[in-house]
């Protein structure tokens, strides 16, 4: 109904247009006037007494009828339970228990007639494997001499036996260190004597192995994926090793106790490489954050930070034989040379281009004469 302002009469039937009965019922009130209702003031929980230290709420007190949680209906709860069950089934993690280690010996006898194991440096070859002197001149390889086949998937790292190099240690994406880990093995590292080595794998475990018997001596984990692992090269620190992790940290373990003794946590991305420099007093780390950081041993603050807008991440780093240079494989198809002493500056005169390996970590190395 609506009031007709053009009519000046007292009769309700002619004064209103539309439903006259509703107009009489509402006493001629408009929609806005009839819709107004006196609202009761919401009450708050009592807690305005400032003398009560534990029970004082002040202006932050909740309303009496206020609800903290909105509970879904039964149908909505069923749908949510179904979605949660599907996600758990799809993203269910594998058992975190480490895989059972086993070793297969591929030679007939572990010891020869003199009681020497295969770790013994052979002396019946034409090369003196015990010599510490570098050859007078090095040559580029011109033909393939031998192929080692044993892994069923890609090989992620290869290490020569310390000093003599008469044995090869390899790890692969087939979870083998030629069956040890439950997932692909990322990195390996010998100790100085070659009697033990460490392995880092995607099953979140670092394992210490006996080179001769193949037995797993210890396991280390902080529930993160290790990307690289290195023993401290000093003879008096062979019980310590560092590992670059996926959670942006470099973690230092003690083999004797199996505990973490130090953490270096300044990187902003997963740590890819660790390289010891300056007579092992320092080490250099590279990361997915496209930076290079230099650390003092056992001091968790980097004293040198190198990062440029044009820099790419460097997943492979090698120290030169004389300890003066670092060769870094950059993800922009370049090999960059940094000084390994004092300032750690980029040598812009020595930048090597030509490879087309962007996206892959390709290890670099120096010849003994550095030519």
Automatic annotation (TrEMBL):
TM regions (residue ranges): none
WD repeat start-end pairs: 178-219, 264-296
Residue ranges, annotated region (Disordered): 68-101
Keywords on record: mRNA processing, mRNA splicing, Nucleus, Repeat, Spliceosome, WD repeat
Gene3D superfamilies hit by this protein: YVTN repeat-like/Quinoprotein amine dehydrogenase (2.130.10.10)
GO BP field: mRNA splicing, via spliceosome
Localization per record: Nucleus
CDD domains with a match to the protein in the record: WD40
A Pfam family recorded for this sequence: WD40
Record-level GO cellular component terms: catalytic step 2 spliceosome
Domain of life: Eukaryota
GO molecular function, one term: mRNA binding
UniProt key word Repeat: yes
SMART domains according to UniProt: WD40 (SM00320)
PANTHER family with a match to the protein in the record: PRE-MRNA-PROCESSING FACTOR 17
Protein name per the record: Pre-mRNA-processing factor 17
């Amino acid at each position: 109904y609506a009031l007709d302002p053009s009519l000046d009469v007292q009769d309700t039937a002619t004064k209103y247009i539309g439903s006259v009965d509703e107009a009489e019922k509402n006493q001629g009130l408009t929609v806005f006037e009839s819709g107004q209702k006196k609202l009761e003031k919401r009450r708050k929980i009592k807690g305005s007494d400032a003398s009560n230290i534990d029970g004082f709420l002040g202006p932050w007190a909740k309303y009496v009828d206020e609800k903290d949680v909105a509970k879904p209906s039964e149908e909505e709860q069923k749908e949510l339970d179904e979605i949660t069950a599907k996600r758990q089934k799809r993203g269910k993690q594998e058992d975190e228990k480490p895989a059972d280690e086993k070793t297969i010996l591929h030679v007939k006898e572990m010891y020869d007639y003199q009681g020497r194991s295969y770790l013994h440096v052979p002396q019946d070859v034409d090369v003196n494997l015990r010599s510490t002197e570098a050859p007078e001149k090095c040559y580029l390889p011109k033909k393939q001499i031998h192929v080692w086949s044993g892994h069923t998937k890609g090989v992620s790292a290869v290490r020569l036996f310390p000093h003599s190099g008469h044995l090869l240690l390899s790890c692969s994406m087939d979870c083998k260190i030629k069956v040890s880990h439950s997932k692909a093995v990322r990195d390996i590292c010998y100790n100085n004597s070659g009697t033990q080595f460490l392995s880092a794998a995607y099953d979140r475990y670092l394992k210490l192995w006996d080179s001769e018997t193949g037995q797993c001596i210890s396991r280390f984990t902080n529930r993160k994926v290790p990307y690289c692992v290195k023993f401290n090269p000093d003879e008096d620190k062979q019980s310590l090793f560092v590992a670059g992790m996926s959670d942006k940290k470099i973690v230092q373990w003690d083999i004797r106790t199996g505990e973490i003794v130090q953490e270096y946590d300044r990187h902003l991305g997963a740590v890819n490489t660790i390289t010891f420099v300056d007579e092992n007093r320092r080490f250099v780390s590279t990361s997915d954050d496209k930076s290079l950081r230099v650390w003092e041993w056992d001091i968790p603050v980097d004293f040198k930070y190198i990062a440029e807008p044009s820099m790419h991440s460097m997943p492979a780093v090698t120290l030169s034989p004389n300890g003066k240079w670092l060769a870094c494989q950059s993800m922009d198809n370049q090999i960059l040379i940094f000084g390994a002493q004092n300032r750690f500056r980029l040598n812009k005169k020595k930048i090597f281009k030509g490879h087309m390996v962007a996206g892959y970590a390709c290890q670099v190395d120096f010849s003994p004469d550095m030519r």
